[in-house]
């Protein structure tokens, strides 16, 4: 199976976690797209009654087209489960997310969910975080200053751009600065540093957050408990 087939495998497997009546966080990305498609089929074929809480405009559009009822995070009193992808997961279940620039809403939905389930193909499982550039969402005003501060600290920042060369805007009209770190030895202290930088809205280190991971492997999906 190629990477896309592994993504489909875990996306389709993960909807087994969704039970009638649940309020479900719907993540973002190509793996989650398979999950949302499979969820849409369950809604039509089984009459499954769920409420979705989306983490991006892209997922909201897809879910709406599939007639999945949606509420915002502020309109629900709880979220039973969020199913989301990830860019890297270390052996101790820390994660990098935000490859799809949706990390802000993804983190808001994750911290408000009773259970967090990540779905990934096996290439996302790593010994140490950091080969994948760490996304940091920043307010446009003062972002050049923040960029220079990251540069001076040796964090190898780049502004994320669109194909036409203009700066990418998130769903909240912020910029993304990607930090090219190679390896992150101490994710918690890096997260503390980023949390303290004025102008940083949120970063893609998702630490101590996940409960279960479904990993797509050649022999089938494997469920890991954090
Ligand atoms: C979006 C994310 C995605 O979950 C992450 O980038 C994984 O994406 P994909 O499933 O397309 O590999 O964090 O902000």
Automatic annotation (TrEMBL):
GO molecular function, one term: ribose-5-phosphate isomerase activity
GO terms classed as biological process: D-ribose metabolic process; pentose-phosphate shunt, non-oxidative branch
Top-level division of the source organism's lineage: Bacteria
Binding-site list for substrate: 28-31, 84-87, 97-100, 124
Record's GO cellular component terms: cytosol
Enzyme Commission number(s) of this protein: 5.3.1.6
Keywords for this protein: Isomerase
Pathway linked to the protein: Carbohydrate degradation; pentose phosphate pathway; D-ribose 5-phosphate from D-ribulose 5-phosphate (non-oxidative stage): step 1/1
Catalytic residue positions: 106 (proton acceptor)
Family matches, as InterPro entries: NagB/RpiA_transferase-like, Ribose5P_isomerase_typA_subgr, Ribose5P_isomerase_type_A
Reactions that this protein is recorded to catalyse: aldehydo-D-ribose 5-phosphate = D-ribulose 5-phosphate
Subunit structure as annotated in this protein's UniProt entry: Homodimer.
Main function: Catalyzes the reversible conversion of ribose-5-phosphate to ribulose 5-phosphate.
Annotated NCBIfam families: PRK00702.1, rpiA
Similarity field: Belongs to the ribose 5-phosphate isomerase family.
Full protein name: Ribose-5-phosphate isomerase A
Organism, as annotated: Ligilactobacillus apodemi DSM 16634 = JCM 16172
Primary gene name: rpiA
